[in-house]
């Protein structure tokens, strides 16, 4: 008799609320016998590898009919790259397709929670770049799990805004300290003194990434900071599981979304390499920073914003452990590394200048014009931008599974 069984009137009875072994589960699924308990055990082990969370929604999400039907057209991405295989099959891009199907959207949210929570646990263990942030927006934040974890760890962040498509935040759970705002990052983004963005840029083309980042720049208050957390293929990519996971993710994105590939560390800004602690390069006003994302990964503003000072340098006040394989990058202004001075915090007046919905808990539809006005008011030349190699090192303590999921 097994530990979770007892005898009742001579009959073997299973005790309630006790763990079942794989073979016991198998006898429930296949009462007439058969099946392979060892293989079932493998699946269960994977599904439980995220603690209380489940990896299952992620697996299910990637194997939905809508995705599977795009795979036979993967070669089309080579023959005609103007339309991604998903659109060729379904006639519209993946996110608008999800938007019409509440169950797909729900699955996407659960899939993201399942993979992002363990990922963020690693990030928050070592990354200190949220120091001094008062108002933080997570662009493309899905159900808000990343923001919830950031706020739970950093109590100095007064307000978190989870910004995603209206149909996504419309079903997101309520989270203390977090306001869900629905909108379109291609129109505008709620104002904040830091923007967090994870696994968003990787699914868009270079031109689209430029638009998103321009809107981030407009939304940032003086001294603002953008923390972008995206997969990056290192120069010395090899045959490791990590590299393969990244390359597979790349094909997934190519088939389902529209990006033209994950960034490689070669495409980071001038003279900048992940982990290069000696890099301390400033790009002055005269230098052309409005470059192709593929060449440089950063393109901020159009010609009218050229007068702004844009800097690339190494931040030296961030304590970070050493990680051999970096796969993330961050754009960050040095000024915002601490938020102790009054002008770096959001003043009462600035808070009042924000559209009303950003201060009201609950779900609001994003009003493009209000934010555009506010955002452009902040284009005062005070923002400086940098790429922070030490922060990047800290950000990217990723486990292999998290990497696999980076392109969902
Ligand atoms: C790969 S998911 C990443 C989710 C979350 N950042 C994470 O890491 O768990 C990309 C997110 O971007 C959102 N998104 C897509 N298009 C958007 C748009 N135009 N404006 C705002 N969010 C968008 C999606 O709804 C989705 O939640």
Automatic annotation (TrEMBL):
Q: Which GO terms describe its molecular function?
A: O-methyltransferase activity
A GO BP entry is: methylation
Protein name per UniProt:
O-methyltransferase C-terminal domain-containing protein
Could you tell me the keywords of this UniProt record?
Methyltransferase, S-adenosyl-L-methionine, Transferase
For this protein, the record's SUPFAM superfamilies field holds: S-adenosyl-L-methionine-dependent methyltransferases
O-methyltransferase C-terminal domain span: 75-255
Upper taxonomic classification of the species? Eukaryota, Viridiplantae, Streptophyta, Embryophyta, Tracheophyta
């Amino acid at each position: 008799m097994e530990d979770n069984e007892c005898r009742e009137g001579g009959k073997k009875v299973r005790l309630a609320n006790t763990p079942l072994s794989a073979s016991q589960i198998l006898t429930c699924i296949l009462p007439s016998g058969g099946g392979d308990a060892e293989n079932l055990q493998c699946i269960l082990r994977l599904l439980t590898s995220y603690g209380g969370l489940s990896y299952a929604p992620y697996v299910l999400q990637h194997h939905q009919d809508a995705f599977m039907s795009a795979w036979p057209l993967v070669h089309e991405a080579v023959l005609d790259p103007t339309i991604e295989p998903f659109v060729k099959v379904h006639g519209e891009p993946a996110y608008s397709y999800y938007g019409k199907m509440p169950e797909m959207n729900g699955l996407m949210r659960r899939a993201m929670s399942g993979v992002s929570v363990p990922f963020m646990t690693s990030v928050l263990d070592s990354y200190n770049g949220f120091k001094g942030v008062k108002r933080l927006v997570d662009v493309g934040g899905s159900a808000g799990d990343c923001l919830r974890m950031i706020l739970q760890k950093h109590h100095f962040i007064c307000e978190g805004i989870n910004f995603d498509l209206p149909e996504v935040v419309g079903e997101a759970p309520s989270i203390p300290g977090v306001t869900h705002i629905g909108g379109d990052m291609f129109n505008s983004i709620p104002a904040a003194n830091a923007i967090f963005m994870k696994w968003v840029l990787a699914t868009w083309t270079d031109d689209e990434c430029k638009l998103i980042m321009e809107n981030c720049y407009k939304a940032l208050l003086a001294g603002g900071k953008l923390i972008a957390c995206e997969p990056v293929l290192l120069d010395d990519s090899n045959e490791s599981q990590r590299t393969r996971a990244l390359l597979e993710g790349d094909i997934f994105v190519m088939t389902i979304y529209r990006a033209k590939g994950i960034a490689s560390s070669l495409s980071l800004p001038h003279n900048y390499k992940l982990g290069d602690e000696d890099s301390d390069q400033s790009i002055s006003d005269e230098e052309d920073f409005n470059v192709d994302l593929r060449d440089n990964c950063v393109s901020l503003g159009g010609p009218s914003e050229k007068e702004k000072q844009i800097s690339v340098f190494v931040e030296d006040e961030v304590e970070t452990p050493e990680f051999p394989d970096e796969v993330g990058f961050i754009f960050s202004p040095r000024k915002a590394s601490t938020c102790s001075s009054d002008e770096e915090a959001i003043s009462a007046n600035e808070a009042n200048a924000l559209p009303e919905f950003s201060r009201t808990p609950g779900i609001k539809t994003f009003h493009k014009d209000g934010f555009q006005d506010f955002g452009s008011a902040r284009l005062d030349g005070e923002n400086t931008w940098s790429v922070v190699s030490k922060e990047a090192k800290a950000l990217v303590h990723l486990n292999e599974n998290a990497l696999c999921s980076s392109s969902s």
